[in-house]
């Protein structure tokens, strides 16, 4: 006879050896023992059916009571979610993570504030520089030239003529490094 371990969910069909084993067990049993086991099996099946009926009745009663109280599946879901959220917020891991993120946020805020202050100072320094002032004067001169020509106070012209004359004026005002003599070069 072959011996093998059979799992609960074994999907293999019974083999001839398995059938022989089952018949050996029933053959070694007296008729009285067999009747007792059959009675016990029948009684157990009846109890299972009774318990199923009782459970079904209790589930029905449970649903009716919930309906009378106005408890819907959605409200239960909300309640479970709320309870779960509260439990999570009470956990040690959540508290530690929250504290860590708060600290990181404060440090990041401080870093951005410091960076913003540094950038503001640099822009202030740049605006006060000689190069920026020179550029600013050229832009002001160009704008006033355009306003004069477009406003009609001087000899008029088309918009294209005003733009080209402004561009010429701007290029004449901008000295190149090669064309500057030593007295015009910045130190």
From TrEMBL:
Q: Which one GO biological process term can you cite for this protein?
A: positive regulation of apoptotic signaling pathway
Output a single Gene Ontology CC term carried by this record: cytoplasm
| Chain segments annotated as coiled-coil in the UniProt record | 27-68
- Give the UniProt keywords, A-Z: Coiled coil
The record's region (Disordered) falls at 1-21, 146-187
By its UniProt entry, which InterPro entries does this protein fall under?
Answer: TPD52 (IPR007327)
Xref: Pfam families: TPD52
Name the family.
Answer: Belongs to the TPD52 family.
Q: What is this protein called?
A: Tumor protein D53 isoform X9
